[in-house]
């Protein structure tokens, strides 16, 4: 399973150092949470941070748009270095158009569902998306506990992908640690976003390696 550290939980005064640390520790992607204060209560990074990160790392930038109107900022984030843009199913009634907009900019298009959103809400988009992110906590805040019932969505997504030969990656975000990462991997997840678990420790490198291997050790 690939590990995508979320810099939302890093030391904001030393973000460059944090990015370099996780890259050298073997991270596979860099997860960047964009929050607008509307779709979720908090505010976080902008496209300027994405651009700055692109200049100092070779890690693919996994940009999670927790914003009320994702279509309005797709081009900005794409031009500033996003490799994947993830939009919430709950934010736009014209999601098909948003996905096409992202892919037309030669960026991977991902769709996100909250814990309370049924998988049926995104079934029409599964043949065309590059990634599906299942929120395993409620969006907008770090440090929450993993919601195990969300694993049924991961299992269903994996089953549908196999049955139809679809190509999307399955990502989980929220409450990831050495206990929950194996559960996500066994359910079918390909990518795990980890924030508080990594950046609350002085042993970030060892924790990344533990997450990358603990699923196979079960």
From TrEMBL:
Entry keywords, A to Z: Carbohydrate metabolism, Cobalt, Isomerase, Manganese, Metal-binding, Zinc
Active site: 33, 173
Cofactor: a divalent metal cation; Zn(2+); Fe(2+); Mn(2+)
Top-level taxon in the UniProt lineage: Bacteria
Transmembrane portions of the chain: none
Family: Belongs to the ribulose-phosphate 3-epimerase family.
UniProt GO MF annotations: D-ribulose-phosphate 3-epimerase activity; metal ion binding
Function: Catalyzes the reversible epimerization of D-ribulose 5-phosphate to D-xylulose 5-phosphate.
UniProt source species: Bombilactobacillus mellifer
Keyword Lipid metabolism on entry: no
Reaction catalysis annotation: D-ribulose 5-phosphate = D-xylulose 5-phosphate
Any single Gene Ontology cellular-component annotation: cytoplasm
Pfam entry (one): Ribul_P_3_epim
Chain positions recorded as a divalent metal cation binding sites: 31, 33, 64, 173
One BP term from GO: pentose catabolic process
Binding-site residues for substrate, renumbered to this chain: 6, 64, 140-143, 173-175, 195-196
Cofactor binding summary note: Binds 1 divalent metal cation per subunit.
Enzyme Commission numbers on file: 5.1.3.1
Matches recorded under InterPro entries: Aldolase_TIM, Ribul_P_3_epim, Ribul_P_3_epim-like, RibuloseP-bd_barrel
The protein, known as: Ribulose-phosphate 3-epimerase
Biochemical pathway: Carbohydrate degradation
